[in-house]
Amino acid sequence: MIKVLFFASFREKLNCEQLILEEGEYASLLSALKSQLAEKGEDWREVMMSDRTLVAINQNMTRQDVALQPGDEIAFFPPVTGG
Amino acid sequence: MISIQAEDFNPGREYERLEGNKSSGAIVTFTGTVRDMNLGDQVGGLFLEHYPGMTENALQAIIDEAMARWELQSVRVIHRIGQMYPGDRIVFVGVASAHRKEAFAACEFMMDYLKTRAPFWKKETTPDGDRWVDERESDQEAADRWL
User: Fold this and answer.
1) How confident is the model at residue B53 (pLDDT cuts 50, 70, 90)?
2) pLDDT tens sequence across B39-50
3) Interface check B5 vs A, CB under 8 A
4) ipTM value of the model?
5) If you average pLDDT over residues B15-39, what whole number do you get?
6) Between A and B, how many residue pairs show a Cβ–Cβ distance under 8 A?
7) Residue A21 to residues A13, A26, A57, A73: CA-CA distances in angstroms?
8) Do the Cβ atoms of B50 and B3 come closer than 8 Å?
């Protein structure tokens, strides 16, 4: 099982805060998971394919493609604007 | 060292806490507040969202890096979340160091990194409705100076 989280404008755009995907329901690579989620509709495609989209795996930002492991927490969010 | 909280904070009390160390010769603090204007529009309120868990880790990583770069006796970071209004305090960064150069640099470094690396997002209320605040290129450029 993996957990996929969406924050801020992405959560609102997709109307989705969290997805739980069981074994066999998710792709083995992050890049493939993004392609899989992009199939869910136009808004999903925009979020997954945007250059602005940031990704964190287990709460660490990553720019690389990685293999997904059971228990992983994958988060998609827009550029940060705190401070 | 790190607080993420809905409640306001008292900059004076935070300053006094930074004063405790007798080997410190310099204290620099920064307080960020909510402005009533952004991109030419009146801002009536600001909502701050964060990523619980990751935000704390990201702030800790920023502090760790600051302490590796400069000799700092004390560091404090406070970031508020939730609903705020113009004039409210949002963020506090304070450092104590032996000398002013280190203290100024570390404080600015931490704010530059906080603005580009810590998962917080602002949504502001304007007369035309609520909108998510976009990132600024100038913030990224400011952070890139430290690379």
Assistant:
1) very high
2) 999 999 999 999
3) no
4) 0.94
5) 95
6) 71
7) 20, 6, 15, 11
8) no
